[in-house]
Each structure stands twice: as C-alpha cells, then as structure tokens.
Write a structure and sequence with these properties.
Length: 192
C-alpha cells in the first residue's frame, strides 16, 4: 500500500525521525532507502505538515531516549505504548494493533517420538528465548517464562541468526514481523 501524496508546499520546519530498521514490514532499509509502513506514515505526516524530514537509524532500545533527550523529534517503529514510556515521551493516538508471536525452527517442532522438542508455548518454559532489547517482549518473556534463559538482541537480523543457528530455541516479536520472517525463511514456523 502506498500512502497518498499531498500537494507540494514550501519547506517548513525541520524534523528528525528516528527508526530502528530491520523489522519489515514496519521499517527497514532496502537499497539504501528507508521503507516500511511506519516510514511511509511519518513521511506522509511530514509532507502534510510541511516538515523537512530527516530520518536517522538507531537501535530499537535507544528510540525512546532519542526523543526524551531531543536527539530526535519523533520515533516510529511499531512502538508499544506503555505506562513507563508515557512517563518519558508523548504518544500519538494508536494507529495499529498487533499481537505477540513466537517462532521456532521447523526441525524443533515436536513429533510423537521427538521427546523434548517444542510443540506448544508451554514447552518454552526452560528454553533459550531471543527477544529484542528494550521491547515489551523482553519483560513479557521474563514474566511469562521465569525459568527460561532470555537473550537480548539489538537488531532483528541478529535474533533471526541466533534462532536459525540454534543459539536460541525461539524468538518473540510482533506478529506482523514474525509472519514476514517466516515468509522469507522456510526453516521457521509460527507456534503462536
């Protein structure tokens, strides 16, 4: 889906958008250009409001601090609104609702004779779980799976590599991102 274009206006104030690229369809970098739903949404907003937009890429865990410190004027990257974050920055109205999802390697899905492999979310209780640093998923994983080993990753490609190479047993992120990863990698499968 392409966002509508607005009639050109004289360039107004400058604005900086900070994003963490690498979790398409939300935001990413393709051929050196920032793309994705959140990027297009903010570009359209900037165009409508006559803002000369500069986009910078940061690690996800640094996004809230970038706005709080003035390094960026706004952030976008499917950022969950939490009470803790609302203490530091102002949010727009929500524009998207998403669910959490867990992916694993297909070869680790349990069969009748597989024994200790994964077949349900409950099987993750004592596994190694990969989650994005600074996301709502790290706290969720720690609360839902207190006996699991939680490994934090600054970038989604690092989490994906850890999963496909067997360094973690499962990855937790939002459903849209996980569906995209499963489409791109036939060795992965959603279990939730």
């Amino acid at each position: 889906v392409t966002m509508p274009k607005f009639p050109p206006k004289p360039v107004g104030e400058k604005g900086t958008l900070a994003v963490a690229v690498g979790d398409l369809p939300n935001s990413g970098s393709v051929n050196g250009e920032y793309v994705g739903f959140d990027i297009e949404l903010v570009r359209t907003f900037a165009q409508k409001e006559n803002i000369d937009l500069t986009i910078i890429s940061l690690e996800f865990a640094a996004l809230v601090a970038a706005v709080a410190s003035g390094k960026a004027d706004m952030i976008a990257d499917c950022i969950a609104i939490t009470e803790e974050r609302k203490q530091q920055i102002a949010f727009s109205d929500p524009y998207m609702e998403d669910k959490s999802a867990i992916i694993v390697l297909k070869k680790n899905i349990a069969t009748a004779s597989a024994g200790k492999k994964i077949s349900t979310v409950d099987d993750l209780a004592r596994k190694k779980l990969g989650v994005p640093t600074g996301s709502v998923y790290d706290k969720f994983a720690m609360q839902r799976f207190p006996a699991a080993t939680i490994q934090l990753y600054n970038e989604l490609p690092d989490l994906t590599l850890a999963l496909t190479s067997g360094r973690v047993d499962a990855g937790i992120h939002n459903l849209h991102v996980m569906k995209s990863l499963v489409r791109e990698n036939p060795d992965l499968v959603l279990i939730s």
